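Our platform keeps sequence and structure together, in a single record for each protein. Nothing more is needed to write down the fold, since each code stands for a local backbone conformation. An entry from our holdings is shown next, in its original layout:
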Amino acid sequence: MKYSLEIIKTDVLVFDLDGTLLQTDRANNLAYYDAIEKVIKSPPPPSINRIKRITLKDLEKIALFSDLKLKEIKNLKDSSYFKYLEYTFLNHNLFDIVLQFYQKNQIILLTNASRNRAKLLLEYHRIEKYFSHTFYNEYGNKFLNCIEFLQLNAKDMLVFENEKLQVENALCAGITKDRIIQIGDDFSNEIQIKSKRRIC
């Protein structure tokens, strides 16, 4: 999908992490495979291999995993994630926008990822310093929570997001559709920045 953006000084640029600014599916899945194999002492069931991005909710649907095993899998996955950072990569087209505007605009990283995992990714890719704020959302609508915590005006926010559910959450938070850039799975979006307009 093609987007033509006009960014002015008062715009607040909000970037999601997983699947938007960084592609992390493979690292996520490898860490889960490793954890599952250690817990059940055998390779993960074939049904798991068909999941694009494994989540704990996916594993909850599999009878093989008790609540205790799920907790152990989650802990092992989190503790081994660092081993798979090399399988993550940056969306350079999107990060170019960060580089172009981080000294002029407020740039926010807004993620549902755990603080520890997000920090690992930011440090590995050396991009943490380019964000005015990093908001690690722990529950509920991350956009509403971020707006409330940072006292933002939804009308000023320009959102970059890949998940359909999170796009809906952004709309619920008062961010208009024309201010939401939905990022494709293959990072193939064409985003053109137009010359900025004068603020009267």
